[in-house]
Amino acid sequence: MIDHLSVGIANLDRTRTFYDAVMGALGYARLRDVEDAVAYGRDEPVLWLVLAPHPVQPDPESGLHLCFKADDRASIDAFHRAALAAGGTDNGPPGLRPQYSANYYAAFAIDPDGYRVEAVCYI
């Protein structure tokens, strides 16, 4: 349904450091690195992080967050560790979230720009 998603960011170096770490933990790679953007995916760029003069201001009450598919629980645990080590903030440790479904295993963080990110698997 969605070909790609672009998100405006304020600092490309900081963003690259954070997303290289968390996407790598999930088995994704930086597939594009241009003057004002980086893009991540497995086979093709899906998430574009683009320098913007006026990035959307994060609002924890907006409901907006980015959720990434993980292959297994170990990848989610690694995602959470990588997020915190790369300048992110904890927004929910790895674990089951039975309020979503019996096998919904996820972790949550806030990236350096203040956007909420999640990794999930259904194992």
List keywords for this structure.
single chain; 123 residues; alpha/beta; 2,3-Dihydroxybiphenyl 1,2-Dioxygenase, domain 1; 4-stranded mixed β-sheet; 2 helices; globular
Distance between the termini: 24 Å
CATH class: Alpha Beta
Shape: globular
Derived structural class: alpha/beta
Percent of residues in beta strands: 35-45%
- Over all CA atoms, what is the radius of gyration? 14 Å
Return the CATH architecture.
Roll
Low-confidence parts, pLDDT < 50 over ≥5 residues?
none
Structure report:
The protein is an alpha/beta fold. It has a single domain, classed as 2,3-Dihydroxybiphenyl 1,2-Dioxygenase, domain 1 (Roll). The protein has two helices and eight strands. It has helices spanning 12-25, 73-85; strands spanning 5-9, 29-34, 37-41, 47-51, 66-69, 89-96, 105-110, 116-121. The strands form two sheets. A four-stranded mixed beta sheet has the order 1-4-3-2, with helices on one face. Helix 1 (12-25) runs antiparallel to helix 2. It is globular and about 40 Å long. The two termini are 24 Å apart. The mean pLDDT is 96.
What topology does this entry show?
Elements: E1 5-9, H1 12-25, E2 29-34, E3 37-41, E4 47-51, E5 66-69, H2 73-85, E6 89-96, E7 105-110, E8 116-121
Parallel strand pairs: 1-4, 5-8
Antiparallel strand pairs: 2-3, 3-4, 6-7, 7-8
Q: Could you write a compact summary of the structure shown?
A:
The protein has 123 residues and is of the alpha/beta class. It has helices at 12-25, 73-85; strands spanning 5-9, 29-34, 37-41, 47-51, 66-69, 89-96, 105-110, 116-121. The protein has 2 helices and 8 strands, in the order βαββββαβββ.
